[in-house]
Amino acid sequence: MKIVVPIKRVIDHNVRVRPTADGTGVDSASVKMAINPFCEIALEEAVRLKERGLASEVLVVTIGTAAAQEQLRGALAVGADRALLIETERALEPLAVARTLARIVEEERPGLALLGKQAIDSDDNQVGQMLAALLGWPQATFASALELEGAKARVTREVDGGMVTLELALPAVVTADLRLNEPRYARLPDIMKAKKKPIERRALEEMALDLPAQTEVLAVETPTPRQRGVILDSVDALIDKLRNVEKVIP
């Protein structure tokens, strides 16, 4: 069985993001880029399934500029078999990403599409669900455990009241949560080998997809700094401050 793992190139989670000088977006110049952490978890799970003999091939896919080859090679270094870059300078919205991935899935015919539940830059949490709807496949989101048994997948997910286990007929779409696994570090020999592996490249425009923009970014601003809190000696002092200083209670 083949597993397709879409990944996204994002600013490293340890970097403090800043808006561009003109306020039209986030400044990504000269900052460290990385694979989205949730995508790393999905990739790790796919590689583990292959190592257990439950998958024959792991295909990692990303949509972006030529610079995203760095993240694809990182995925190859930890165990992906093939890498595909859909090249575009556009910043695609979730539905456009899902439509592009649906075309790839239809061509590759995998038994499982395994994604991170969301990307840390936009936090939309939409692509996995949209991809399942476009393909007409069953889906399980926020997976904290995944088991494959023949033509079925058993997925455990956390909900407010505890844990829920779902059984899905394959092919299916599964999105990974933090507790699914802990991604491995790539070994130096594997990193060197990954540098020599080919990366398939396709232009997004050649796929003849209708991907109109549906939203417009008006401005990106740094959040207003929070005011420092104060410690009061008693409940009476708190009530007095709220009533006479802050004037939030009568």
UniProtKB/TrEMBL annotation:
The Electron transfer flavoprotein alpha/beta-subunit N-terminal domain, residue ranges: 23-211
GO biological process: carboxylic acid catabolic process
Gene3D superfamilies with a match to the protein in the record: HUPs (3.40.50.620)
Domain of life: Bacteria
Keyword entries, A-Z: Electron transport, Transport
Cofactor dependence: AMP
GO molecular function term, any single one: electron transfer activity
InterPro entries on file: ETF_a/b_N (IPR014730), ETF_b (IPR012255), ETF_beta_N (IPR033948), Rossmann-like_a/b/a_fold (IPR014729)
Job of this protein: The electron transfer flavoprotein serves as a specific electron acceptor for other dehydrogenases. It transfers the electrons to the main respiratory chain via ETF-ubiquinone oxidoreductase (ETF dehydrogenase).
Assigned protein family: Belongs to the ETF beta-subunit/FixA family.
Subunit structure and binding partners: Heterodimer of an alpha and a beta subunit.
Record protein name field: Electron transfer flavoprotein subunit beta
